[in-house]
Amino acid sequence: MANRVENVGILAMEIYIPSQYVAQEELEKFDGVDTGKYTIGLGQSKMGFCSDREDINSICMTALHRLIENNNINLHDIGRLEVGTETIIDKSKSVKTFLMTLFAKEGATDIEGIDTTNACYGGTAALFNTINWVESSSWDGRKAIVVAGDIAVYGKGPARPTGGAGAVAMLIGPDAPLVFDCGVRASYMTHAYDFYKPDLASEFPYVDGKLSIQCYLNALDKCYNLFCDKMKKVNPDFKGLLSLDGMLFHSPYCKLVQKSLARVSFNDFLNCAEDDREKQFPGLSQFSKHQRSETYFDRDLEKAFMAYSKDLFEEKTKPSLYIARNVGNMYTASLYGGLVSYLISKSPEQLIGKKFALFSYGSGLASTMYSVNICNDMSAGSKLEKLINSLHNNVAMLDKRINVEPQAFSDSMQIRTENYHTAPYEPSGSIDILFPGTYYLVKIDDQRRRTYDRKL
Question: Is 69 marked active-site?
């Protein structure tokens, strides 16, 4: 057995982004809603989507294969592969088993891990499981990979603009440039019917919009305050948001993230000694008696703390929203798309030694806040420099996508809906529009077995 290790975290990352998108501004016109409803009200610019040529297996294989290629990974050096997703196309067979086709070719089959599912939280759970494995007595000295991915689609109506699609693959191991803090994870788990998918014949979820927002903000309150308590045990000088260089959130849509950062400031306000509140939070003393549980939809409070936290948002959170704004909700991959966005927003010199918190939320519900430290090695050719450079190459794909008219987008969604459970089935979506290196669905046979190929 290998010796226990420290500084476990993310060694490398790869992000998959669909090759086509619909502009939210055009979608507003197409849907006949007020100008700004999606672009300002939701804070979204573009929404990536997949045709029937891609499914959860293909997008995860695309992200994984690129991670392997771009980092020259020896497949026999991987001891665990775990997937987080809520895009279920088989009630028994895991997405991980399809990913094993890449490993089996090399005879690399001694690999632990399967799929983890709970709405948008599955990727975080898979990541925690994998970090725990590397830090445990079960670890055999090899590295691990986590893949988080989803295709988020909704029926026609107000929820459809909050869709998206994407996948992230992460290489996990010791001596990482992004190191996970030990002993300060703060979780909140309970039961709620805010968002769920009980209809196995449909891709579409059941959503209680107002309850969903309430559950998200309540979970944020619970996780953030417990996270602060744990951090203060490690560092008595910890002062919440002001002690963090960044604050990243799961992003169903960008406007909710901005409101969430304001919510964190409200929690800091309540946690501040009453004698110090006016000094630290000038002009906000009228909110001193407000109870957290009664303020989820308090517009006056929300407006006041969004104004107070505007500069904090610009500095600590907005840099993490670039992909979310231009791709949409990637469910399990959303938070990690935020991590990618945050890392490419600054140079390695600006990132070294920084600490940031991440809030992961999955409806139903499961949530955790945890923190990551960036290493101090910024030398040429360092792991941190290589990681950031590779992510810049990833994100450059955003500018190479095809802009699809809303009607064509709607038609593509209709094809997915009508053929969700069809077998045998041959997809009609174009292969030509896919980025090189993208896996795609060739056919589903009469036994519902799926065949894939890769665009060269």
Answer: no
Residue 174 pLDDT greater than 90, yes or no = yes
* C-alpha closest to that of 338 among 94, 64, 124, 39: 124
Active-site residue, 135 included: no
Domain spans of the chain?
Answer: 9-455
Tens-digit pLDDT profile for residues 414-429:
999 999 989 999 999 9
Contacts 24+ apart (CB under 8 A), 89-96: 89/55, 89/56, 89/57, 91/200, 95/56, 95/57, 95/60, 95/147
Q: Is 119 left (phi over 0), alpha (psi -120 to 50) or beta?
A: left
Nearest residue to 262 via CA among 323, 303, 294: 303
Q: Give tens-digit pLDDT for 382-398.
A: 899 999 999 999 999 99
Cα–Cα distance, 63 to 340 (Å, whole number):
14
Please tell me the predicted confidence (pLDDT) of residue 220. 98
Which of 14, 60, 65, 250 does the annotation list as catalytic? Answer: 250
Q: Which CATH architecture has domain 9-455?
A: 3-Layer(aba) Sandwich (3.40)
As a whole number of Å, the CA-based R_g of the chain is 22
CB atoms within 10 A of CB 289: 7
| Structure confidence at residue 5 as a pLDDT band (50, 70, 90) | confident
Burial of 403 (C-beta count, 10 Å sphere; 0-12/13-18/19+): exposed
Sequence-separated (6 or more) residues with CB below 8 Å from residue 155: 204, 417
Question: Can you give the pLDDT at residue 3?
Answer: 63
Interatomic CA distance for residues 172 and 229, integer angstroms: 28
- Measured at the CA of 188, the angle between CA 187 and CA 192, to 5 degrees, comes to 150
Mean pLDDT of the chain: 96
pLDDT of 212-266, one tens digit each? 999 999 999 999 999 999 999 999 999 999 999 999 999 999 999 999 999 999 9
Q: Which of 14, 54, 82, 86 is catalytic?
A: 86
Please give the share of the chain, as a percent, with pLDDT higher than 90.
Answer: 94
Q: What are 44's two structure tokens?
A: 């979204």
CB contact at 8 A, 95 and 57: yes
Res. 455 pLDDT band, cuts 50 70 90: very high
Q: What SS3 state is found at 171?
A: strand
| pTM (predicted TM-score) | 0.97
Catalytic residue, candidates 50, 60, 120, 375:
120
3-state DSSP assignment of residue 418: helix
CB atoms within 10 A of CB 405: 13
| Cα-based distances in Å from 215 to 134, 160, 208, 290, 368 | 32, 20, 10, 18, 13
Active site residue 191: no
